[in-house]
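Journal club prep, notes for RB
We'll compare a predicted complex against what the paper describes. Inputs for the flavin-adenine dinucleotide case:
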Amino acid sequence: MIKEERNFADPQFETAMIPGRFQRTMRHCIVWQLIRMVFFSVRSIGIIMVNLKNEKELPST
Amino acid sequence: MARLVILGAGIAGHTAATFAKKWLADAHEVVVISPNSLWNWIPSNIWVGVGKMDKKRVTFPLAPVYAKAGIDFRQAKALAIYPEGKESDKHPFVTIEYTGQGREGQTEALSYDYLINATGPKLNFGATPGLGTGSHIGPHTVSVCTADHAAEAHERLRAILDKARQGHRQKIVVGTGHGTCTCHGAAFEYALNVEHAARQAGVRDRVDIQWISNEPYPGDFGMDGMQLGIMGYVTSVRIMAESLFSERGIHWINSAHVSKVDAGRLEYEQVDGTTGEEAFDFAMLIPPFSGVGLKAYDRQGTEITDTMFLPNGFMRVDADYTPKPYAEWKASDWPVTYRNPDYPNVFAAGIAFAPPHPISKPRTSPRGTPITPMPPRTGMPSGTIGKAVAHSIVNLIREGDRAKLHTASMAEMGAICVASAGTGFQSGQAVSFTMYPLVKDFETYPGTGRDTKRTYGEIGLSGHWIKYILHHLFLWKAKLKPGWTLIPE
Ligand SMILES: Cc1cc2nc3c(=O)[nH]c(=O)nc-3n(C[C@H](O)[C@H](O)[C@H](O)COP(=O)(O)OP(=O)(O)OC[C@H]3O[C@@H](n4cnc5c(N)ncnc54)[C@H](O)[C@@H]3O)c2cc1C
């Protein structure tokens, strides 16, 4: 049985997605992960910007 | 000279205090009341709980930082608010009881012009028989909610892993200790980190790990789940959370209210009425949260706690607290300025404000036990709200009634969350999420209640690096080191 099929042996796990060798390697590949870090940082900046944009000023009374 | 008093020096209170002082400089007074002498970067307590960091690396003493900033720090706990003052002196004040600074046990009345309640949660262990008494954890389980709890959790985990090394099979349970818990993310991270620690110790095959939670499914997180836009698909975070558990051989019990804890054993009731029990050698269960139990009195000394606070102890702010069914919940129910409706110089920030209702669907077992995850108010919203409230108060101090109040609605706010799944510069992993908005808004986003272009998650080593960088960035910011204002909340 290959690793990504292991979950089908347990009824609670059978709808899950188990990563295969390629996925597992990419999760720890330094170069790919550096790229992902840049990608996630850009997404995060987007969230920070939208939060700043949404901060409004209302009259106090 | 106006005096702003801030109750609590956690993420919300510390952010509010430091920004208010920066903006007000020496023209006005900022006083912080907190019973703890240390500031704690709570998200890293997870790593303390598995022995990857010690308490010193996640805490620092507040007094020197406040002394340098010109903030008056009182190591004390607030007891009661007198928002109308007394008949003899109409100036509002709070009563406090010192817990340090050589004044332990002394009480004092401290007047204020503006007040921020940022007292966070009471860890209500006492709500579940056997989990603890009041806010004190009992002997049967551990917690990672404070740095001390996490250090104790690590000691006990180490003993369990040692026993596994000696060939004894061990059972670990991680999750929530009551049907109305929140803070699932912390428990989720801890489960994954314990699994990682067991693998690193070479004993994973002798350790069974069980997740138990009041969520309807793994990944609800008290946020009614999330629908993530990933590589052209929109998928439920449930798939991701269940996959992470499956991959690691962690079984789960959902929709569970832990009803009783004993030595090595817990009982639970599920939303369909099923009851069960689990034996364990080690259990980390997050307690339910409530307000810290502040009281309030009017000018005549009559108790008005029910007016200022909801029955759960959290402070009323500008939310719509009218009870209504899930189908009628709206983004506009959520507070915007965090101002108390009766006392306009009182605000609440972070976990201390009372949400109008949960975000997840409320459910009750046939016996009438509520099994509903409560809404999380994580670090980013707590800090953002703290800063917005500080901004509003600074405006009020400077401009009086003409002042503009700043908004920070959780229904118009996005968040970034990084959930650790194990440490190590090369072997670590974390799930990195962005979501927008925090509170589902079906009027603006009829499909899933959120913007699936901005709601996203992935797992990998880079998440661990980000979490590690954030640990250092936020400690840097909290210590008010150069450039601290440039680091977003
Ligand atoms: C283990 C764990 C991991 C977490 N991980 C993450 C994460 O990765 N990302 C994230 O965004 N969030 C995370 N969170 C949530 C985050 O820690 C909280 O959202 C945040 O701390 C809330 O800030 P707060 O200021 O409202 O409350 P707190 O940080 O709890 O601060 C409350 C303050 O009030 C003080 N206080 C209490 N009682 C009184 C009183 N009577 N008088 C005066 N002061 C009082 C306390 O001493 C404290 O200083 C995690 C939480 C836990 C428990």
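Talking point for the session: The two ends of chain A are 68 Å apart (CA to CA).
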